Each structure stands twice: as structure tokens, then as C-alpha cells.
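Problem 12. The chain below contains 747 residues. Write out its predicted structure in C-alpha cell notation.
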Amino acid sequence: MRLTSARPRPRPRPAPAPAARIGLALLAAGALALPGPAALAEPAHAGSARPASAQAAADRAADCGAADAAKGRPATASSVENGGLSAANAVDGDPGTRWSSAFADPQWLQVDLGSVRQLCRVELAWEAAYGRSYRIETSDDGTTWRTLHSTEHGTGGTETLTVSGSGRFVRINGLARGTGYGYSLWEFRIAATDGPGVPPVQGGGDLGPNVLVFDPATPGIQAKADEIFRRQEANQFGPERYALLFKPGSYRDLNVQLGFYTSVSGLGLKPDDTTINGDVTVDAGWFNGNATQNFWRSAENLALNPVNGTDRWAVAQAAPFRRMHVRGGLNLAPNGYGWASGGYIADSRIDGGIGNYSQQQWYTRDSAIGGFSNGVWNQVFSGVQGAPAQGFPNPPYTTLDTTPVSREKPFLYLDGNEYRVFVPARRTDARGVSWDGVPQGTSRPLTQFYLVKPGATAATINTALAQGLDLLFTPGVYHVDRPIEVTRPGTVVLGLGLATVVPDHGVTAIRVADVDGVRLAGLLVDAGPVNSATLVQIGPDNAAADHAADPTTLQDVFVRVGGAGPGSATTGIVVNSDDVVVDHTWIWRADHGAGVGWTVNPSDYGLLVRGDDVLATGLFVEHFKKYDVEWTGERGRTIFYQNEIAYDAPNQAAVQNGATKGFAAYKVGDDVAVHEGWGLGSYCYFTVDPTIRMDHGFEAPVRPGVRFHGLSVVSLGGNGQFEHVINGTGGATSGTSTVPSTVVSFP
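Solution.
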């Protein structure tokens, strides 16, 4: 988002002119002395080519074993044609012996690898009798099975399948034969890594050195919070990470100021279990009253009684305000009403009014508020009691009565003296907070979680997952030399304190299988210097399972390419699975910091959605070299989208898309029949060549099922222009006045 070299007049009005955050010197992070964590608080216990194929090649090169892990291992089958065609023949390494089943469907062959292994490739050497429809499945115990690969178009011959997952038992489950005979395999080969050399992982334990836990009797809470703030206030790209956790109870006379990579949370089951008589504050004094870089921080699960009746939360992207109860008002602008560019509220109750003031855009979901005042370009509400009426473009409010599908972020809490993680239930057509009455969901003990701490390896993390453990990342920066593989339905992967995952050697950082109900939340994924084709992948290329009743959710999962240092990734996030809910993400190719430049931190795409029935609520994607968002799955929906086109394009030719000037900020595939979006905005600010023009900010096929509501494009100070808003519809931006061009509905 934007910096500025000029200040607005200090008035609480809705339209301060924005400016770019390029070109101003960043404040250096101070090297303040900070007592060791042990001294601070008690420890806690207890349309383009899809990138996945290229990524798979990079990942295989880094982590796929060449040996046949199935050779000589015990094998069993549902049936054999006769005694000379046993299951063991398929894993004996002899290409002249085979297993053959009875002439019926279904049939299976399984092998016991002896321990949980990371699986990366399966080879089927069929005899003439082959499987036309089959699944490759894996299990830790031989009872509960997960699908790694499925097809209805088996070809026979030798089929080599790239898979991603883990398990001790692997089987081919034949569903339909390709001939009138049975299923017949010369060889069933499996490539695997992470063998018995990785010891078993224990769940539970302490929360690590950068989690500070307070109770109302803890002395010096304010001084401790202030010391962390002084360290983190301007520490935009440093490695330090902190989580401040408050046990249930009442706290007096506190002002917890939040800097970078700092989270504050209550440890009750409900916000009102933990009350701060005081404030949780984000302001912009470190940046001369400019809040457009107040990223990467959060406040969750607390009740506030603000000292002067109004709490200040002046943030930009990647700064969620979740599950909060403010017994007063909320001011979203910095002191002096300087520039601001946030932001996101969910599952919160604000008894008083919310003052938007200088916030250029904002999204509020499933909350209850006492009112909302002011607006700049794009303020969106879904499922919010007390939300203003629909008014776009004047005032710029887009209001939906409910949110179609939502499920709140998992959170850590105390049940007596035991730490647990609450996993909220899915809601449909939600309105208002989820925590009135008895919270709906399930609770998991901390012993069910591997507590990931700095120094943990991808091999150990994957071993924990393969054992059936969930993951709780404690605050820190984690380098992984192979993908973190999430293959078990219902797995929770939760980060505290903006825990950060960095992929080494060009691998994918996190891969989620095509399974039900995975919860990925509270993580920053930071691209490494070697190009990753994809940083986060949800579902393999062939994902096709129906997850409508139990979708995978991504919440507060942020992606960064460059800024903290050189980074490269072809694509930030790829969603192949159906029914995924992407709830609040900021996918950012850095426009400032270290390792920044058109050829220094290259990245083509922010988000590619290939799955059907995917919902995005609170989507922020910025500065990618081609499409920031490309959506080719059917029946996709986006509620709120904020975008900036890449600032650093060197000239018009660099962004030319065939005959089209520029790549759209949000592209719906030409073959998509049904898609809908509400409250979408894109801005341009070309710093190298301000003469660049974009044909449009949004591009979509023109058909009845593809609909948009409340679209806007903005030229920031005349540095580049849009010819239209969507396709050839909507007026051009012009001049230096930073006035949006809007389309109320399309087509």
C-alpha cells in the first residue's frame, strides 16, 4: 500500500488524497535491549499454465526418494485369482511375477512400509488386465484411509503417479476394471522419504520463549508490553516474533501497543472472559502519522473498556481484529487522521460506532456494531448487525445481509489450567458474532498438537503430521527444505505471533491434500531466494472431491515475495480443491524493503483458483507481474477485494498482455459460467513509467451467471491510468485527482 510525502489536513473526513509508499526511507528497526523472555513472563505449558507441475518437479528433486520402499514389504490383497498370483508378487522386485485378483469389482492390494513414510511417487506396472478407475490410498494404521490420487481414466501399461502425503500402509483400491479379467500388477513400486531415522514426535509441552503469558497478578505487565513494542514498533522486516496471551480475568490501566509481528489474545473461551480496562492500540507515530505500512499484527478474543471510550486500530493489510468485544467505539485512523489502508474485522462486537475516517478500504464480517461513519473508496460488510445500508458508490458501502459460508479461526484457550485449541463450527448464512450463547465447535487438548519451535525441520514437522498430530507454530521463522504435507482430514495448522515459513531450494512451503476440513491459520509464508513455482497449494492438480459439508479454510494466511530479502515465486497460493474458504489473506509481492525490483523479486500470480465453489472473504492481493487473481473454477465468490497493480513495471511493453494493455487485477476465466463478486477495487501507481495505461482493472466473460457488484478503479495521483473498470465498461480514470471510476453492477 501507499506511503506519502505530504500530510492531509487533520480532519475526520472521508476523502484524504492517497499517495504512494514508494520512495520514502524506511525507519530502521532499533536494536533496543530487551530482557530475555524468561524474565518477561512465566512460560506457558502444556488461465495461464498451472504451476503445480513445475513445482512438483522442483519438490521431487529436493525430497523424492529413488528407492522402492515397497520392495519386499508385507503385502495383502482383497483376493487372488489363484495361488500362484499372490499379493507378494507385486512387491518382490521381479518384473516376471505378478498379482492378479478375482474377476470382480472392487478389489485392492496393500503394502505395509513398516513405519510412517513421506510418499512422493507410486508406479503401477500393469499386466494386460488393468484398472480403469482406481484410488491410491494411504493410512497410518491400516484402518483409516486417505486418498492420494484418484482417476477414472487409467491407461494401463506403466503409470507413474506423483503423490503427496504420508502413511505406513499404501494401497491401490480398484473400483472399475479395464477388461473382463481382474486387476493384475507386475509391480507396485513406491518412492518414499523420511523413514525410520526421524524419531516419533511428542505432542504438548511449553509454548516456547516468545509466548508471554500474563494473569491479573503478573507484576509489571505494562512495562513488559512497552518493551516489546519499542523493539517491534518499526521492526518491519526483522525476524523477531511475539505473542502476548492474557489469562481470563480483569486487567486494569493497560495500553497494549502493537508493533510488527506481535499478536495479543485472550485465553478465555469467549472474549468477555478476559477484560482489559484500557486499550489495545495501533497508531502510526513511527511513520510520521502514516498508517499504510502497519502490517502483520493482530488482536483476538479480548474485551476492551477503552480509557477515553474509543479504541484506536489504525492498520493496513495483514492485521486482523477478530473475536473482540469493544465496550465503546473504534477509530480506524491514526492520530491526526493521516493515510490509512486496512483492514479487516470479524466475529466482533463494537458497542459504539466505528469511525472509518481516512481508511481507503475496509471489510467487516459477521459482527455487531453500533454504527459506521465515513468512507473513502470501498467499505464492505457481510453478516454485520448495525451495518450501514447499501450505498455504493456514494457512500462507498457494499452491504450483504449475511455471509454465505463462514467458520471462525481456531484459537488457543485455557480450560481450567489446561491449554486447549477451540475449533469453531461452520456457519451458513451467518449474521452477527459466533460466540453468543454456547460457542459451537470442538475442543482439542494441547497434547494433540506438535508445538513447533524455532529449529524444527520439515522432516520432523511431517513426522508429527503423519503420526496424526496437529501443528501449533510458536512465534519464529522456520526454514523448510521440503513441503509441509497436510494429508489428514480435519488437521489444524495454527500459528502464533505471525509464525513465518520460508521454503528453501525452491520447494512449496505448504501442501494440503484434497481432504475435508483442514484449518490453516495464522501464518506468514515468505518466499525464499530460489524460485518456488507455488508457495501454498491446496489440493493436487486432479482435486475433485466434494467438501461442501466440511471445507478447508485458510484464515490469516499471508504470503510475501521480497521485502525481508530477495524472494521469488511464480505463484503465491494455488487452490485446486473444491469448496475452500479463503478468509482474510494478503498476498504481496513487495514494493519496498530489501530484495525489491522488477527482476529482483519476480512473481507472476498472486492467487490461482482452479477449484469449484470456492469463497473468498477479505481478499487482498498486490503487485504481481501478471494476473493478481486468476479464477477458473466454477461458482466462485469473492466478498471484498483490494488490489494494487505492480508499481515497478518498467514500461508499457512489460505489462502488455497480447492485444490487451495490462493484465487485469482480477481475471475470471473465459470458460467460467458462474461467478460473483461484491466490493472489488484496484489501484494503479506506476513509479517507473507513469504513462502506462491499463485497459481495465477487471476482466470476465459476459454471460448471465457472471456478476459483479460495486467495482472501482483508481489512479493514484495520475501515475498511470485505467481505460475502463471491467472489460470495456466503466469510465476511464484521468488526471491527478485520484477520483475512482466505478461500476455499480455488471453486466
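Discussion. The first strand starts at residue 75 and ends at 77. Students who got a different answer should revisit the alignment rule from Section 12.3.
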